[in-house]
Amino acid sequence: MTPLDLGHRASRRWGERLIALLLFGCGIISVLTTVGIVVVLVTESAGFFREIPIAEFLTGTRWSPMYSEQHFGILPLLNGTLLIAAGSMLIALPVGLTSAIYLSEYASPKVRAAIKPILEILAGIPTVVYGYFALTFITPLLRTAFPGTGIFNAASGAIVVGIMIIPMIASLSEDALNAVPLSLREAAYGLGATQFEVSTRVVVPAALSGIVASFILAISRAIGETMAVTLAAGATPKMTLNFLESIQTMTAYIVQVSLGETPHGTLEYRTIFAVGLVLFFITLAMNLLGQQFTRRFREVYE
Amino acid sequence: MATKDLRDRSGDAPDIALETRALSVYYGESAAVNDISLTIPRNRVVAFIGPSGCGKSTFLRCFNRMNDLIPAARVEGEVLFRGTNLYAHDVDAVEVRRRIGMVFQKPNPFPKTIYENIAFGLRINGFQGKLDEQVEHSLRSAALWDEVKDRLQESALELSGGQQQRLCIARALAIEPEILLMDEPASALDPIATGKIEDLIRDLREDYTIVIVTHNMQQAARVSDYTAFLYLGELIEYGDTDRLFTNPREERTEQYITGRFG
Ligand SMILES: Nc1ncnc2c1ncn2[C@@H]1O[C@H](COP(=O)(O)OP(=O)(O)O)[C@@H](O)[C@H]1O
Ligand SMILES: [Mg+2]
After folding, report:
1. Which pLDDT tens digit goes with each residue over B160-174?
2. B50 Cα nearest atom in ligand 1
3. CATH no. for residue A229?
């Protein structure tokens, strides 16, 4: 009989420990990066808020840090961001949800197998490509339809962001619809429901929290979107609800200053951290909200 | 093309609820139900028994065209309801399911309130009467009213398994079908909940024709008037329940009911 080889086991255990340690290290790196970003945002913003009162920043309706007459009210940027978010959702919600219902409830397995990968490819196209698409295709169309529309306008930005996030909503909502058990569909069919009634009155309500979660993630994507919006909607911070005017979003402003020649360390430069902090809180809130819904959605069927 | 009016009673045979003629169902190439012809008498309880996988569910789902939902399933032969072949090209499956209700193996209430579970079928069928009254009536018919009357606006998912299944029965009864199909309705329930469902089936026989699938022979013996024994997709024996269990004519039936296989 061979004696127990305890040494071998011990070395294996060391290997396991090493792997665990490595993985832990990777996890720590991503956590530290996030913490680092937050720290930079907060410290740089603190420098900004020592000179500009928070109340003025949050309630001011003019934004002109680069002009001789400086104003530091973030509302025009917020206005621009919300305009793009709202406009894009107006397009993406109905189209995305309808596509999801079609894919999950109506499409044959063959069609679904063909379309799902296409959605993922669409979601992977670099956003700058969408930006040029807006500038060279959507904007000219808008200018023909509504003469007087500027080269840069919120509508073009909103439309292109809407198109960009359709695949995301369609794909995530389809997952939610698909997760609704067959037994619920059978129950409804068994009561003499038509396919349309089954889809709209049983499957969609049963998947509602998952669908809402996909909406929220899409909104936060629309809010965070930068390149396409910068290209299409321009750089004019403005309090307006007119989609045909040029506006500026928070992200577009951050890019503008980062790429420009504003000297580091100045008040003007610090504005981007203050704006970034607001952006951070908005997307954080959206994602938490989305997770809340996703969690509720899981509870029902597990 | 006009769809067939299934309320037309002109083709009625007075005491036959359903009849199958040379009915076969294939999943791809293999037959899950093979050339079955039988009649289901009106206002009786008929049980389908047989070992798991013998085609009971597949056969039952022919009566309300539930197999339409399975792309691989192909049905041959006829199912006659009021003289109409339910598989004729001018019959609308949606209309069939409004006349012939179904209760499934696992309770499958909608994730809605108790009230809305019952009201759902009424709403989609354009029910004209008083919704509240019909909801109460259905819940009473399913012997559930006393247990839920104070919590109609709570989620149906909070009910116990047995209550959920009686809710599903109430939901099916609400749209006043003539026939109720039940696919092992008590197999997921404990003995007490099972007993309540069986009591209910005996009560419902007054007003409905019930076809129930079960793999539990005692249950078939307790609740049914007639029993059909299926084996490997074939109808082996069909007859009066008491007679079939005490004096089976076929050897395979005897082997099955005495527990020698299955
Ligand atoms: N959706 C399906 N696709 C392919 N084969 C199926 C399907 N459903 C059932 N079957 C097959 O048909 C046969 C009968 O199944 P079923 O009617 O569910 O039997 P039972 O209800 O008596 O247990 C089984 O062999 C089963 O594997
Ligand atoms: Mg079965």
Report:
1. 999 999 999 999 999
2. 22
3. 1.10.3720.10
